[in-house]
Amino acid sequence: MLLVEYLHYIVAFPTISLNLLLILLIVFSTGKAFRSYAILLLANAVADMLYTIFETLAMTRVIPIDNNLALVFHGVCKFINWKVCFDAHAISIHLVTFTLTLLPISFWYRYRVTQKTQPPPRKIILLILIAYLPSLLTMIPFTFAGVTPERMLAILAETNHSFQALNLGDSAISGLEPVWNVKAISFDVWLCCPCFPVYSLAFLYRKKFISALRGSTLSHRTKSLQENCVRALTIQACFPIVFMAFSSTYMYRQFRLPGYLSLPYSDELIFLSFSVLSGLSPIVSLYFILPYRNRLLELVHIRHRPSYRVSTVHNSVTRKSQIY
């Protein structure tokens, strides 16, 4: 398990740093025309950064045991107690569901811009809070669902598993008994069920955006900016699919499907995979979203291409009036 622990730290440092960089650029380099969409970017970056912090604190390994689930924690939380580890795990998971619900809001925003009806910041904040509530409300009872280490070790013994055979090492342990218990079921359902409506809405508004952009009277430059934003969103929308693919290995083992024992390291890599994706997300944003890319290039003293320079008063006014 030592190698996996090192991987967590190796992934965590650049992921947290990149999201912090994006957060600082959003806070200090956002123009008025870009403020509404910047709030969405900020919410996503904060969620990704916090997810990585709490996931690294817990370093959760999931071990399906019949109808139960053992959660083994290798992070620094093990030096405090198992409850801190379980709560850190719950917080990290609820941030995954929150970032997922931000996807359709982001595509909806881009569509509204093509209609020249940019939503005001207050409306964006309200929508983000509404999207966050289900994740928060389902997480709260889940934090009380964890069983004590003594009970989980007893379950391991009853099912002919042993602490040593599972190579748990120096770690904290908790879990769910059973997986679908009353305190955990709403959280489990919310983790699994939003995928279809979220991606359906995201696909719908992406399609409407493309159609509206083709027939819009926006300038060529503004259209190009909008297309870049949607390219970034489309790439970021693929990230949860990768996480769900890793998560499906857990379901495969939980239901003991054929060959479920021959999935090496799947129990350690499920949550690490989302930390990797959380580090890729700010890279995509910084590459495709021009205001932040240009500001970053200025900070590292890299010369802009001539087409991005604001050389006259007229161009300066035009740029400030762009709808993002």
From TrEMBL:
One of its GO terms (cellular component) is membrane. Keywords: Membrane, Transmembrane, Transmembrane helix. It is a multi-pass membrane protein. Signal peptide: none annotated. The chain crosses the membrane at residues 6-27, 34-54, 91-111, 123-144, 184-205, 229-250, 270-290. InterPro entries: 7TM_GPCR_serpentine_rcpt_Srd (IPR019421), Nematode_rcpt-like_delta (IPR050920). Its main location: membrane. It comes from the Eukaryota. It is found in: Membrane. SUPFAM superfamilies: Family A G protein-coupled receptor-like. It holds the Pfam family 7TM_GPCR_Srd. Belongs to the nematode receptor-like protein srd family. This is G protein-coupled receptor.
